[in-house]
Amino acid sequence: MKRPKPRGPVSAELIELLTGEPGTEMAAQSELLGLVSETARLADDILTDDDLQLALFCLYELHYGGLEGVDDAWEWEPGLIAVRRLLEEPFEQALRSAALVAAGHPADGKNAAAAGKPDSDAVADMLFALAAQDSGPSLSRYVAKKATVEQLAEFLIQKSVYQLKEADPHTWAIPRLAGRPKAALVEIQADEYGGGRPHRMHSALFARTMHGLGLNTSYGSYVDAVPAVALASVNMMSLFGLNRRLRGAITGHLAIYEMTSSRPNHLYAMGFRRHGFGADVTEYFDEHVEADAVHEQIAGRDLAGGLAEAEPQLLDDILFGATAALAIDARLTAHIIEAWEDGRSSLRTSLTAAA
Amino acid sequence: MDHETKQPGDPSSVVLCPDGPILIRGDFEIVTPSGDPVPRHRNTVALCRCGASAIKPYCDGSHKLIKFRTGIPSTVDEDS
């Protein structure tokens, strides 16, 4: 993707450093480390901190498709891994606090754990119950009933930071799992990636939806336009996916994502049909109504439940991943709906400037 | 039928999801009473069991909204 525009001193120094050669400028690397340490300590709320979320986003992007004009070898530069870990620590803490608040009580599986080995059906029940509790303002109802065409485009832009690489962060977990949860994850991901048909990949379907609204479909083209919390939602998946110790969290994240998807996607499709958009635009949403009704069963019982049976100590993190996903999604939704109800754009920059 | 990746000879499995759909994997065909194939886009499908789906025969998650209960305590796998 294109290199994003800096949002503060940390992202500015990082992006500047990345345009150079890896393995050089050790002084600049340690200066960045000092700056990150200081900035992260002083940040009010890392979840909505534009500068720090963008820096983390750029660091993670080195492990995905990379940044234009940035040497691939930066991916494993020890100095940058150190910076990433400095950012990840307070980020993970903030996610754990947000998950605690969202759950209303410590999101743990004490009852199931106390009863002995957690059973996969019980884990699926816990996750379905969490998904059913989700009761914030609804973006899908707003899109179905009220959103203007401009707001539909904004909605796609907000989602595009993830959906144009849909499924990738969860794929990191495949080699960290074994047996039943691994088979379950591969089955879901194969479907996400189109079952061998590139044009059926969910990211490709999403690109066609964006194209139908005249938007740029190359990955990351709207990163500069989205707020920090939208970046935080993708960074959360990368954090969970790229750290093996958080394999419970990434499976919980996927399970809750699938469990809160069929119905909203039905409503999103309604919103686009209401404005006369055709099947090329709504196919992405229609596909998710059907696919995620399959995926939620596999993700709840075989993936998350199977993992909890194999590694019972991961149950707390499975629930943490699920609850954090709901909490961050609720913050992004609140950000978007507040802006729209005030008659403002939910983006940082206007659509024309971003395109 | 938009379905090219099934493996002939795979034993099919039918999973009765508690309070949810029927999940079918393996080598099988879904047809209408007159034998016409029902469009299918994926290997593993979830068939509606609560009657509320808007995309029957497939599940769309509506069972959760109507609080459908199967009363079957555990998941059953069976080879066909």
Number of helices of chain A: 17
Helix content of chain A: 55-70%
Order of helices and strands of chain A: HHHHHHHHHHHHHHHHH
Low-confidence stretches of chain B: none
Tell me the span between the first and last alpha carbons of chain B: 22 Å
Regions with little confidence, pLDDT below 50 for 5+ residues of chain A: none
Largest interface: A-B, 28 and 26 residues
Mean pLDDT of chain A: 94
Strand content of chain A: under 5%
Helix-and-strand structural type of chain B: mainly beta
- What kind of assembly state do the chains in view correspond to? heterodimer
| Gross morphology of chain A | globular
Radius of gyration of chain B: 13 Å
> Helix count of chain B, per DSSP?
1
Helix content of chain B: under 10%
Main pleated sheet of chain A: none
Strands in their spatial order, largest beta sheet of chain B: 3-2-1-4
| End-to-end Cα distance of chain A | 14 Å
Your description of this structure?
Chain A is mainly alpha-helical. Helix content of chain A is 67%, strand content 0%. Chain A has helices at 9-18, 26-42, 50-61, 78-103, 110-114, 120-133, 139-145, 149-163, 168-171, 179-192, 202-212, 228-242, 247-259, 262-274, 279-310, 315-341, 351-354. The longest helix of chain A is centred in the C-terminal third of the chain and has 32 residues, at 279-310. Chain A is globular, with a radius of gyration of 20 Å. Chain A starts with 8 loop residues before the first helix and ends with a helix. With 80 residues, chain B is mostly beta strands. Chain B has one helix and four strands, in the order βββαβ. Chain B has a four-stranded antiparallel beta sheet with strand order 3-2-1-4, with no helix packed on it. The chains are: A mainly alpha (355), B mainly beta (80).
